[in-house]
Specification:
This protein has 423 residues and is α+β, with helices and mostly antiparallel strands. The chain contains 15 helices and 15 strands. The chain has two domains: 244 residues, BirA Bifunctional Protein, domain 2, CATH 3.30.930; 90 residues, 3-Layer(aba) Sandwich (Rossmann fold). The structure holds one RNA strand of 77 nucleotides.
RNA sequence: GUGGCUGUAGCUCAGGUGGUUAGAGCGCCGGGUUGUGGUCCCGGAGGUCGGGGGUUCGAGUCCCCUCAGUCACCCCA
């Protein structure tokens, strides 16, 4: 009796060519980040539950119903990270990284976990790359962070990109605004639907996301957050937009762009893809978080960062037809016919030692079958180690693209192969 | 958490109103070629028809439940 166990809902395996694309994407992200002065750090995938509750916010959907929380054997409440910024800020505070000079700039990436219902571009274990810049309050730093993400996405070859930016001001400005906003919406729309009513109660800014046409209309005529901002917030935002202009980065100001995490303040932004449908078109997003470091027990320092969704970027790349072709995983495959398995493996070992990606056939199969395997492997060269040849001290090299064959002595195999595939 | 659609071989899919041993293409394995792949020809293996229950003489087909995928709501990456 065997029971077949499948992967849990919302998780999946990355195999074959997808693995290569993932690795490639990851490499390119961290290379870009490093180029901009954001070296990679590695932080844990679980943290004390309290960290996320306090930083992400109790009123958010993430904390209310999407966290993978568990008790460990010491009865500590731990949570699989639903996002990366909280852990990064904790890391910054825990190691007093402000002492190393500000801003502290770093990149991170890896799996995140949210117990959401699954759909295209949305999984329970999903993956993000992100950067954070903590400790300096300068709109130019906002621009740098936004530009970094933009440059990375553009360099992948994505064309259908829109950068959305907004500012949600300081907490006290927002508090003032939220009151007038709630008041306005309730007056303008009698019989508000329960979803929107709940939003007004828990997290009023989120009504800006409403799709109820009556609410949308009420918002259009209602107070705008930007109009109630103080001079400082206003000039900061203006400076960010000027910086984007100067950097030649196109953007749209979107009054309704409100990020779903409580720690955001001031500048918020999102990279949207034009090729994905409207529901899951956000490739990534981020913003300022000016009270978070202090709330985590550090000095009162501002921060800004973004996170990109790996799965969504790959979907966008696929829609835009820019996924890289992936050829075989080896360049050379060694076949053997007759009693030559041992010398065949010795040749393979020599090639591998020299850094040549090499596979070798196992089992006792016909040469024809071995060639089929060689063909499928995507290797460029097959080395045939045959009894007849070996008696003369040579092996046969076959170019699998052209079918051309040549002989090589045992001493010259490695060199000849390196010449062929080295180009 | 709620709703719509879908679930047959490794993959993509056929299988009117329920009726014998469930099919195709691609892929895989073997042979044609006693040491030569990607073309061609021949043969073969491979299926709890997502799972469970029910109706029926009989269920891949009808009903219920359940699981999974997908899309949408919600929310976000």
């Amino acid at each position: 009796m065997s029971i077949r166990i499948s992967a849990p809902k919302g998780v999946y395996d990355v195999i074959g060519a997808d693995t290569v694309r993932w690795d490639d994407l990851e490499t390119r992200f961290f290379e870009t980040a490093a180029t901009w002065g954001y070296p990679r750090v590695r932080i844990p995938v679980f943290e004390h539950t309290e960290l996320f509750v306090r930083s992400v916010g109790e009123a958010t959907d993430i904390v209310r119903k999407e966290m993978y929380t568990f008790s460990d054997r010491g009865d500590r409440s731990l949570t699989l990270r639903p996002e990366g910024t909280a852990g990064m800020v904790r890391c910054f505070v825990e190691h007093s990284l402000d002492q190393a000079g500000l801003p502290w700039k770093a990149a991170y990436g890896g799996p995140m976990f949210r117990a959401e219902n699954v759909q295209r571009g949305r999984y329970r274990q999903f993956h993000q790359f992100g950067v954070e810049a903590i400790g300096v309050d300068d709109p130019a730093l906002d621009v740098e962070v936004i530009a970094l993400g933009w440059a990375f996405l553009r360099h992948l070859g994505l064309v259908e990109l829109t950068l959305l930016v907004n500012t949600i001001g300081r907490p006290e400005e927002r508090a003032r605004y939220v009151e007038v906003l709630a008041d306005h919406v309730r007056k303008a729309v009698p019989g508000l639907d329960p979803d929107d009513e709940e939003r007004l109660e828990l997290n009023p800014l989120r009504v800006l996301d409403s799709r109820d046409p009556r609410v949308v209309e009420a918002l259009a005529t209602g107070p705008r957050l930007r109009d109630v901002l103080g001079d400082e917030s206003r000039s900061h935002f203006g400076a960010v937009l000027d910086g984007l202009d100067a950097a030649g980065i196109p953007y749209e100001v979107d009054d309704t762009l409100v990020r779903g995490l409580d720690y955001y303040t001031s500048t918020t932004f999102e990279y949207a893809s034009g090729t994905l449908d409207s529901a899951q078109n956000a490739l990534g997003g981020g913003g300022h978080y000016d009270g978070l470091v202090e709330m985590c027990g550090g000095p009162p320092l501002p921060g800004i960062g973004f996170a990109l969704g790996v799965e969504r970027i790959l979907i966008a790349c696929e829609s835009e037809g820019i996924l890289a072709e992936v050829r075989g995983t080896v360049d050379v495959i060694v076949l053997h016919v007759g009693e030559t398995a041992v010398p065949a493996r010795r040749i393979a070992a020599e090639l591998r030692e020299a850094g040549v990606r090499t596979d070798v056939v196992f089992g006792n199969r016909s040469l024809k079958a071995q060639f089929k395997q060689a063909d499928r492997s995507g290797a460029r060269v097959a080395v045939v180690v045959g009894e007849r040849d070996m008696e003369r001290g040579v092996v046969t090299l076959r170019d699998l693209d052209t079918g051309e064959q040549s002989e090589a002595t045992l001493d010259s195999v490695r060199q000849e192969i390196e010449e062929v595939i080295g180009s």
